[in-house]
Design brief:
- The protein is mainly α and about 130 residues long.
- The chain is about 75% helix and about 0% strand.
- The chain is rod-shaped and about 130 Å long.
Length: about 130
């Protein structure tokens, strides 16, 4: 980039001003200041981009961790439900198999919870 710099001329003629060391030092210092300002602004832009990407990565990791936690919780619930149903199935299967064994009908009748109210007579044929 090219910067235009206005240099105030004071009590010196143009020819002596152009040839002097003062002119070179002054222009060098002005150029260095402008270059430093440009470098600082570019560094600030890069720093802000790095901060934005870091925040984006951090937020993504938090969201990923939360969704993983939810997924593992659901999988544990499904596993617990499956194990409970498997246990119930095994108990019912053994009871069903016992029903068809010898004297299974008598055991079936004994296992039944029969609630008979006082006013009703119930007859069970054996």
């Amino acid at each position: 980039m090219i910067y235009s710099v206005k240099i105030p001329i004071t009590n010196l003629s143009k020819s002596s001003f152009k040839n002097s060391n003062f002119h070179k030092k002054y222009l060098d210092s002005v150029f260095k200041k402008n270059q430093q300002k440009l470098d600082n602004s570019v560094s600030l832009v890069y720093l802000s981009i790095k901060i934005c990407f870091s925040l984006l990565a951090l937020i993504s990791l938090v969201k990923l961790g939360y969704s993983s936690k939810v997924r593992l919780t659901r999988l544990r619930e499904i596993q617990d439900s499956f194990l409970y149903e498997k246990y119930r199935f095994n108990v019912l299967t053994s009871r069903f198999d016992d029903l068809f064994s010898a004297t299974g009908e008598q055991r079936f009748m004994k296992d039944q919870d029969q609630i008979i109210s006082r006013d009703i007579i119930r007859v069970i044929w054996r």
